[in-house]
Specification:
mainly alpha, globular
Length: about 150
Amino acid sequence: KIGISDQILFNPGRLTDEDRQIMRQHVNLGYDMLQHIPFFHDAMPVVLHHHENYDGTGFPQGLRGEDIPLGARIFHVVDVYDAMISERPYKPAWPFEKALTTIKQEADRYDPKVVQALEQLTPTEADWIRQLQDFTPATREILGRG
C-alpha cells in the first residue's frame, strides 16, 4: 500500500467512497514502481492483480478465474486472511477459525483450490505462521507496522 496516505491507511472508521478509490490505486502504484526494478519483474502480475476476484468482480481489470495469474490468486487469499487475523485501527484481530469461515462464506471471490489449501492448515499451524509476524518494534517500524 505504498503511496497511500497514512490518514487513509490508519483510518479507524469506514472509508469514504473517495478514500476507497484512492486505496484501489495501490495496485497500479506498486506495479509502476516495480517496472524499473528487474529483480521484481516476476512479481509485477501479483502486485497488479492481487485484488482481482475469482468471480470477476475485483479490480483493477475485473479478471476472472484462471485469467488471474496464479500468484495473484494465492496472494489474494493470503492478503485477506492476514487482514482478518491482524489487529487494525478499526477492528481487533480475528481468530483463525473466524477468518477461515468468512473466507469460505465469500468463496466465489477466491480460487477454490487456494481456499482448499488454506483449509488444510490446522489452527496450531496457523498460529505458528502468525507468530512469524511477531516482529520486534524496530522491524515493525521498518515494515510500516509500527
